[in-house]
Design brief:
The chain has 358 residues and is α+β, with helices and mostly antiparallel strands. The protein has one domain (19-51, 91-354). It is 15% helix and 27% strand. The chain has an 8-stranded antiparallel barrel with strand order 1-2-3-5-6-7-8-10. Strand 9 (328-330) and strand 10 form a beta hairpin. The longest helix has 11 residues, at 315-325. The chain is globular. The termini are close together.
């Protein structure tokens, strides 16, 4: 089999001229900064759908309906009429239908000024541009100026997103995917390398240790679906891979709740940038930033009544927050932005990448 992507078993021992490197990306968490909770979220966690229901009641009515003998009435009230619209849709099946419903308020959002991310719009202050709406900026964790990460601002105080700490944050958001670097002449500084970003072939599986950790140096085939094969160029600066612009990135997103359509759905990112460290052990880690279409973020949750009635998630409030904080791709007719800046934590292990015919 010709031209497997070769990564030294003992890590990077130095690149031969024109080397090719492969990585399996296994960590793709939402880039959530855990500063002091009282600074990030001075109002506490964002309300659940049940708490939003209780907020609509007078103190006397709240006290009455919470009595044990009224438990059935209480459950029917917040799990029934409150999460359903006049057409029978519910807050998680069609959150767009509740944009004008004041009972489902937008999140307060993160109030602190530090976040993971990259400067995606190229401005120092978040001013409006032809591709973006005016928005506030963050400072980076190491003092980097003008970071764009409105998605973190929107969901960083939501309990199901933040958890009780970094170890309790929800796991990888994206399915494992591949990054391939071609034409690498120098692992420290290289003015141009070819970059491929690919979903895995449909029936390729990631082997793991008994503890669940993915094993390095496995072989994976690139997907046969051309929309999940993305290619661009980048550069290596002081041991960091930098991709300054990828117009559109699509990666396979299997939606188990959507049947056959869920087998061909995609995660979508626009105007993507990468800043990834080439690690001594042959791995790769860092940040991917880009703009995400609003409906593409929580798609797996926007399916079912149970997301609200069992998981206690107010999808209408979340989506309303996305709309208010969106900062990318203004609609040419309304001026309302339709995407939101975001950042993913990226972590990968060395792998062999196999292209069709190899």
């Amino acid at each position: 089999m010709a031209a497997l992507v070769l990564v030294a078993l003992q890590g990077f021992a130095g690149a031969r001229e024109g080397s090719t490197l492969g990585f399996l990306i296994v960590d793709t968490r939402l880039a959530m900064h855990y500063g002091p909770f009282e600074a990030d979220c001075p109002g506490g966690f964002e309300p659940t759908v049940e708490e939003n229901f209780l907020a609509t009641l007078s103190p006397d009515e709240r006290e009455r309906i919470l009595r044990p003998e009224n438990a059935e009435e209480y459950a029917n009230a917040w799990k029934g009429e409150f999460i359903n619209g006049p057409g029978g849709e519910n807050v998680c099946q069609n959150p767009k239908a509740f944009l004008d419903d004041p009972r489902h308020p937008p999140h307060r959002g993160v109030q602190s000024s530090v976040a993971y991310g990259l400067n995606l719009d190229g401005t120092p202050d978040g001013r409006a541009t032809p591709l973006t709406c005016e928005h506030p900026k963050f400072d980076g964790l190491n003092g980097e100026p003008a970071v764009d990460n409105q998605l973190y601002r929107a969901v960083g105080c939501y309990k199901s997103r933040r958890g009780t700490g970094e170890s309790q944050q929800q796991g990888s958001e994206l399915d494992p995917f591949l990054i391939e670097l071609r034409g690498v002449d120098d692992l420290e500084n290289d003015r141009q390398v070819e970059v491929g970003i690919y979903s895995l072939a449909a029936d390729d599986l990631v082997l793991r240790t008994p503890g669940g950790a993915p094993l390095p140096h496995q072989s994976f085939r690139v997907t046969s679906n051309p929309k999940w094969r993305n290619e661009t160029t980048g550069r290596i600066v002081n041991g960091e891979l930098r991709v300054d612009h990828l117009d559109r990135l699509l990666l396979k997103f299997r939606l188990f709740t959507w049947g056959a359509f869920g087998e061909v759905y995609s995660h979508e990112f626009r105007r993507v940038r990468f800043k990834l460290k080439l690690e001594a052990d042959g791995g790769i880690s860092g940040i991917m930033g880009g703009y995400r279409p609003l409906w593409n973020i929580s798609t797996v949750a926007y399916c079912c009544r149970a997301t609200a009635s069992t998981a206690n998630m107010d999808c209408a409030s979340e989506y309303k927050t996305f709309v208010q904080m969106a900062d990318g791709d203004p609609d040419p007719e309304t001026g309302q932005c339709t995407t939101i800046s975001a950042a993913q934590r990226i972590g990968g292990i060395p792998a062999f990448v196999i292209h069709e015919g190899e």
